[in-house]
Amino acid sequence: MPIIESQLSTWANQGSIKMSSKTYESVKNCIDSINWKPDITYDIYLQGSYKNSTNIYGNSDVDIVVEFTKIFSSSTSNLDDIGKEVHNALGPAKYTLEDFKASIVKKLESNYGKGNVDIGSKAIKIAGNLSRLDADVVVCNTYKKYHKNYGSRNLKATKGIIFTDSDNGDRIINYPKVHYDNGINKNEHKRTNGNYKSTVRIFRNIKASLVNSGIIGSGLAPSYFVECLIYNGKDECFRQSSYQQRVLCLLKQFVNDFKDNSVDNYVCQNEQRYLFGTGKQQWSKSEAKNFLAEVIKLWEN
Fold this sequence. Notes:
- The chain has helices at 5-12, 18-32, 49-52, 81-88, 97-112, 176-187, 189-192, 196-212, 223-231, 235-238, 243-259, 285-300; strands spanning 42-47, 62-75, 117-119, 124-126, 135-146, 157-164, 171-174.
- By secondary structure, it is an alpha+beta fold.
- It folds into two domains: 18-174, Beta Polymerase, domain 2 (2-Layer Sandwich); 179-300, no CATH class.
- Strands 1, 2, 3, 4, 5, 6 and 7 form a seven-stranded mixed beta sheet that branches.
- A hairpin with a 6-residue loop joins β6 (157-164) and β7 (171-174).
- It starts with a helix and ends with a helix.
- The relative contact order is 0.13.
């Protein structure tokens, strides 16, 4: 017997955003109050479930990006000699991300107290209180993935962010704004009748139910990967008339695509890398299959 429609309807609802908005504004105001030099430029914005309207009840951490836009890193592998000449003519950067981040850490510790600010390997963690949620602040700089220029001196690029994992020195490249834009496009009425994001929330709630029941570990199916999995669902599945029909259509598609290895072509929502693989920013197919197997068991029982 499938999960009843009323339960799926409840799971489709978005969680509260009031506290996440307060948390974001608190952190933004804190960083904006730093006595920056006039030529320092940066962009602060939400990423993750609160930004993408896929947050569910019980979500806590607010993911905030502080992108240092005065400098950028890049991938020039697609550029020809002319393109690389244009790129190399830009000259060295005047500032460093390390100094920019140090200023932010100092201000956050002053504002929230050193005991409430933890410098993690990837993000600065700020402990919440009665008026705000826990926050993960990623300090990064702009990243440009250049497109092929075919002899042109007018270089075009897909923009993302880049920062370093201090534990192992790995460079982490993400595309949160592209991820957001693609989610908006997927959710458009002409594609999915506006049902994409509510369906993501259903699957995130299913995952939470499995974790809370002790059936799967919390690390088996990270929420980001679950969202990317649903992004690869065929638009027609989201146009089904009921929540039950949408979920069942997607489950059938995923099972069939695993059987014929079509999932090898699945992409992350930013469409800049494949979802499945052995990379540190990819999901293993075996873990995804285990997750789906437990979802199907829950669905059937």
